[in-house]
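Researcher: I'm preparing a figure for a lab meeting and need a structural model of a single chain. I don't have an experimental structure, so a prediction will have to do for now. The sequence is pasted below. Please return the structure as tokens so I can convert it later.
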Amino acid sequence: MPLRSKYFSLPVFLVFICFCLSTVALGAQRSVIIGFHKQPGPNEKALIHGAGGGVHRTYHLINAIAAKIPEHALANLRRNPHVAYVEQDATFTAIEPVTAGSVEYENSWGVEHIGCQVIHDANIKGSGVDVAVIDTGIDYTHEELAGNYVDGYDFVFDDDDPFDDSWNGHGTHVAGIIAAEANGFGVVGVAPEASLHAVKVLDGAGFGSLSWIIAGIQWAVDHNMDIANISLAGDYSQALHDACDAADNAGLLLVAAAGNTNGGAVTYPAAYDSVIAVTGTDKTDQPAYFSPLGPQVELAAPAVLICSTSEDGGYAEMSGTSQAAPHVTGTAALMISYGVEDINGDGVINNQDVRKKLRETAKDLGTAGWDETYGCGLIDAAAAVMPTMVIDSATCKDGIVYITGSGFGQYVASASSSIGVYLTTPTTTETGTIISWNDTEIVADFGECVSGSTIEVVSVFGSVSAEVVVKKLLLRRPPRR
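Model: Understood. Here is the structure written out token by token.
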């Protein structure tokens, strides 16, 4: 039909076009997170529908709804007394490696460096601990991960198949550092028998919506995860802040990569107080050049050229705080598997006790005490998991030293562990021959004892020394015959 007709003249057409453009402008939709002052219900959903919007997801971990709202309705929505905040459904990204590239412990230098092998030799491997990997998914067909993979959810495509389709296997690499199986080849994870749950909140390019990430954290709480590893970064969000706080209060231990900001600020969600922010170090315990600085840094862990599982059943070396965080996550899994005490003395054993002991047992680096570079220090799996040895008394009879205390048994639980008992006089140090030991007593033969000597018990795990409480005690000289 010709444009100029008795029904459709050019002026009428131009008016029609202007009307359509105006309608499109008025109807432009924005994806947002709307926070309310109470748990949202029918009235809050009606408020969104009344504004011309649509509800995408209602959260119960936080008082919020993910929705699409017409641009022109946002101002009125923000002024509504029932609304606490309205923020853009922002995009977060995987903390991409700054470098990319087999026997198990030799290939997994970070796992060995933080003292995991002796823990594994004592048959403490993270069994029974549930870890949510909130990332790009997991290649659950990888032979190093298949035995530990349990389930998960894909919030990118809203289905129950959280397979890792990322270009560099980001989530798969993280999962391998946490729990690659101890099968004699390839690599080994920090907690090689922990249960892996893939929570896919980042797409194949490594990007994910804020609403997906909040939903992923909520999934981890709803499914009773013990730990959530979060190796992604974005800007501050009130909704994400609330979600992390609620998850922490629910007992979920949150461990996150601090960000590859090259000396800049710690990224979110790691920067929230309810999250353990993990920075990165190299083989010489120096800070990695890409690591951040700041008051939120809590722990440090190996992060440079970390070999782990990758896409298509392979292996790859990556560097970044995304690789540091899973070393802490795996250590926490070992601790929970072994058993945690009421460290903070509040009468409850929970994620706060794990977090406190991780800090207290870290290897202090840099400036004495906490600092903005290393936080509390380098994660130390052996010290975090094994009980501290304490000597209560030491007596000598006929050259035999009887040492009583606690924490002795685990230190000699495997062939790769060793324990030494030393007797130091003003002129010499003698090594005793161990006759017997258990968790509360060690008996060692020195041939003779000299009054005023010092008794010392030392345990060594490869390159890791256990923290020991040493008491200087007077030993009784055996009677002359």
